[in-house]
Amino acid sequence: MERCDIRGGFILLVVLISLTGCANQSDSWTLVWSDEFNYEGLPDNTKWSYDTDGNAYGWGNNELQYYTTKRDSNAYVDGEHLYITAHNEKYKGFDYTSARLITKEKGDWLYGKIEVKAKMPKGVGVWPAIWMLPTDWEYGGWPSSGEIDIMEFVGYDPDSVHTTVHTEAFNHMIGTHKGAATYLPTVSEEFHKYTIKWCENKIEWFIDDKLVFTFENSGRGYKEWPYDKRFHLLLNVAVGGDWGGLHGIDDDIFPTSMVVDYVRVYQKE
Predict the structure, then answer these.
(1) Active-site residue among 63, 115, 152, 204?
(2) For residue range 141-158, what is the model confidence (pLDDT) as tens digits?
(3) Which residues on neighbouring strands pair with residue 234, listed in sequence order?
């Protein structure tokens, strides 16, 4: 009888934790990974790599930039901030260059609070993003293993930022993607803090600590919730593409940069 009581209490505790998820645990986050960009030169190679694998085919979105490697005109730290800069220039058969930085195998997490303070580039044709992809693709290729867009911005829509998830069941290719657009008229003039809190039962998106979107675990499997595997972070500035180039590209805006003040990742104790 005593054993049953203990087990019942334990089960109740597990259920309560599952239901509350990230809620009421704001004090339990511990910093586990960060880049404060308090150095000069190329991005810290112990934390960041350069993703160039999609240059040959436009990254699946018909983008027009060539992502470079270890080229300070496209990715540089000045002692205070990281600059990811897109240029209008001829380079290896392309008309634009930029950079796509990733933390894969240098920063990979299952659950946590990811916080990035940044200022977006401006101008028609740019498509910067702060986002996450699965490290191991255990449920299959995109979108089956998921994507978490902490924020996306397209230059032709200068007053809004977008927060989105893509899964096998919910993605823009079939018109079912889940997300929110947030009015933010100073997105390119001021730094803003973009945050997700990712727990077992839901992901919450915040802009400057204000909740803007929530995506909950339906419990119906990986097609709706592939977010029980580790993911890594990406920072990039795309040019053109199916969404970013929807209204063309203004070549007078270049060079233009996404400026990042810091990246911080927390997990629960």
Answers:
(1) 152
(2) 999 999 999 999 999 999
(3) 102, 131
Closest CA to 156 of 89, 238, 250, 258: 250
The residue segments making up the domain with residue 210 are 27-268
Check if the beta carbon of residue 49 is closer than 8 Å to that of residue 107. Answer: no
152 labelled catalytic = yes
Distance set, CA 12 to CA 2, 17, 98 (Å): 16, 9, 51
What's the pTM?
Answer: 0.91
Active-site annotation holder among 40, 63, 138, 147: 147
Tokens 């511990």 -> residue: 30
Q: How many domains does the chain have?
A: 1
Q: Which two tokens stand for residue 242?
A: 């199916």
Q: How far apart are alpha carbons 223 and 48 in whole angstroms?
A: 30
The answer to whether position 78 is within a domain reads: yes
Tens-place pLDDT, residues 172-221? 999 999 999 999 999 999 999 999 999 999 999 999 999 999 999 999 99
User: How far, CA to CA in Å, does 27 sit from each of 30, 46, 112, 199, 200?
Assistant: 9, 29, 13, 15, 18
Asked if residue 19 belongs to a domain, the reply is no
DSSP, residue by residue, 136-185: S-TT-TTTTT-EEEEEE--TTSTTEEEEEEE-SSS-TTTT--EEEEEE-T
